[in-house]
Amino acid sequence: MEYPPVSVVMPVRNEERHLAAAVRHVLGQDYPAPMELVLAVGPSADRTEQIARDLAAAEPRITVVANPTGKIPAALNLAVRTARHQVIARIDGHALFPPTYLRTAVGVLAETGAADVGGVMAAEGETPFQQAVAWGMTSKAGVGSAGWHTGGQAGPADSVYLGVYRRELIEQAGGWDEGMLRAEDWELNYRIRAHGGLVWFTPDLQVTYRPRESLRALGAQYFHYGRWRRVVMREHPETASFRYLAPPGAAALNVVGLLAGLGGLIGVAAGAPAAITALTAGLAIPLIYLAGITAVSAALSRGETAAVRARLPLVLAVMHMCWGTGFLTSPRRLHRGPEADTRVRSAQKKKEGAATVGGE
Fold first, then answer.
1. Does residue 149 fall inside a structural domain?
2. 106 and 164 in contact (C-beta within 8 Å)?
């Protein structure tokens, strides 16, 4: 086939450790047509901006565009507007393309007629903690049955990891929603599908992803994932599934059990009636949960090192509980959905109409 030129777009912020490697893997593609890389760089607390400028100065295929908001969807829209080509490949600053990624993706794009083609987030850690997180991110025990986490058969999908898009279909769908600070790719793919576009998953595309390096960073990541998944389900109720409802259900049950158990222990210490001290039975809920994830991780991780296996129960608990807590506490004001936008525009038109009548 005749391969078209490709624009790779990369939102970047606070990626000092990973940016040079991510760029090197893009520029090292075995792709038989022109290619450019647009870095949309947000305000960073490290040397990311300087590294990006240095990389662009040394390589004419790289363009740097400033992203003052630092938000990922805004960065992607800026990068697409700057890009010159009709095929857009999205990548993150901590992800690594394999050498044949673009060739494979563009071939599948042409073969299927899809609007967006993507594959698997192949999480790989460097430290034992990162390796434990990578195991959780690629296991059904951690993230359920999402194909772009755990693999599966090629075929139509709701969404895919990263993605190689036909530019006209990004534009037809209106680009990335700049109010969606997480799940922005899923939401764009939803609108692409609503416009009749095909989103295609293929396990042949494997992108190396570097997981978070600390428990705190992992917890924050999954808390925000949960908050924004609630936004998606609030605006698109038909997307609700067991995979998305299990973590908030587990988080709620664990909190109730823990609070009841603590209340019972306080009652025991205070000599309270048996009806109150019986609340200590609530502690069975978090204990059963911890025993369950420990047993599951031990059974499924036999090929991992002892250092990784020892960290798995804690990693899974943080992923589940933070995702679930984020989901349960997600405020309605987090994102103004399409219906709210319509109401606001309608109110503005009425106000403008009233002002015009008053002026006449």
1. no
2. yes
Among 188, 181, 194, 136, residue whose Cα is nearest residue 163: 188
User: 189 and 246 share a domain?
Assistant: no
The residue among 131, 166, 195 that closes a domain is 195
CB burial string 33-65: b at 16+ within 10 A, e below: eebbbbbbbbebeeebbebbeebbeeeeebbbb
Tell me if 13 is assigned to some domain: yes
The answer to the question of residue 341 being in a domain is no
Q: Report d(CA 48, CA 282) in Å as an integer.
A: 48
Kindly state whether residues 190 and 246 are assigned to the same domain: no
Give the model confidence (pLDDT) of 292-332 as tens digits: 999 999 998 888 999 999 999 999 999 999 999 999 999 98
User: Domain count of the chain?
Assistant: 2
State pTM to two decimals.
Answer: 0.78
Crossing angle of the two packed helices 242-270 and 215-235, in degrees rounded to 10: 120
Q: What is the largest CA-CA distance in the chain?
A: 81
Segment 137-142 mean pLDDT: 82
Residue where the block lists tokens 């925000």: 224
pLDDT higher than 70, residue 151: no
Q: Are residues 69 and 168 in the same domain?
A: yes
Q: Concatenated DSSP letters for 82-148?
A: H--SSEEEE--TTEE--TTHHHHHHHHHHHH--SEEEEEEEE--SSHHHHHHHHHHTSHHHHTT-HH
Residues 3, 31: contact at Cβ < 8 Å? yes
How many angstroms separate the CA atoms of 175 and 68, rounded? Answer: 18
| 212 within domain boundaries | no
Q: Is the pLDDT score of 277 beyond 70?
A: yes
* Together in a domain, 180 and 264: no
Expressed as residue numbers, the domain containing 283 is 242-329
Confidence class for position 346, pLDDT limits 50, 70, 90: very low
Per DSSP, the three-state class of 203 is strand
In the predicted model, what is the mean pLDDT of the chain? 87
